[in-house]
Amino acid sequence: MAFTLRQVRYFVATAEIGQISQAAANLHISQSAITSAIQELEQLLGAALFTRTAQGMTLTDNGRHFLNHAYSILRSVDDALNSPLPDTQFNGSLNVAASYTVMGYFLPHHLQRLAQWYPDLHMHLHERERVDIEQGLLDGRYDMAVVLTGNLTEPQIAAETLFSSTRRLWLPARHPLVEQPAVNLADVAAQPYIMLTVDEAGESSMRYWRASGQEPRVILRTSSVEAVRSMVANGSGVAILSDLVYRPWSLEGKRIETLSLLDPVPSMSVGLAWHRERELTPAMQAFREYFRQSFLTPQLTSTRR
Question: Is the per-residue pLDDT at 298 higher than 70?
Fold first, then answer.
């Protein structure tokens, strides 16, 4: 008996949320449907995927291992449904710059797909800070960039946002704030706070903190997302970061919860950038078209993104 996409989706939803009841509510299905799907998967795999507790569903070691495969399965299906056929006859070269967050948490998957689409497109990659990326686009060192578009400052840089990633509060499992019906920045200000600084994250976060009239009680500033993830999971503090870099488990295997905040917290926008006055070469047009097809076109026809 083979497993189904339905079973995989129900498993992932339960793993990320940690509760069958909430996963069922989010998916608009019955709790029994999720329970049956998980039991079928466990029977098929011959291993328990969850430990059932009074607090909810906790992944076993086998469950965490299968979760990585489940993400790959769903991503591959999504790619197949949303990707147009490539023009494999295209060839050219391209200098592409990207910021740290984009390079680490977004671009590798798309670089692989671009190589499959355009095997004769030779890309030269450069990880740089936003200031250097903007200057490199202006002086011609880079053809295009994939950046956090909300951070751009140069008026001669054209930008096209591909998607926005919601920023949420990260907390350790069973944190008292998880039990509150609503949480705002005033609640967060009372907690020890871990401030991410890479890609100007500190400056970006302080803009909405100041607008709220609150001040975070920062115990650590770090450029490492993994340090934030581990410290939150270990109960050292909380953080506000985007869904793009969120993973439900720390490197130590401890769970991280997320909550949406009542206060307005802007999303993190990811997109393309290039010199406004430069004529796009065929290689630049192909690079841009790939991302437009992957992110902008499906939004017109699908509600899944």
Answer: no
Q: Which pTM value belongs to this model?
A: 0.72
Task: Give the C-alpha separation, 112 to 133, whole Å.
Answer: 22
Q: Is the pLDDT of residue 91 over 80?
A: no
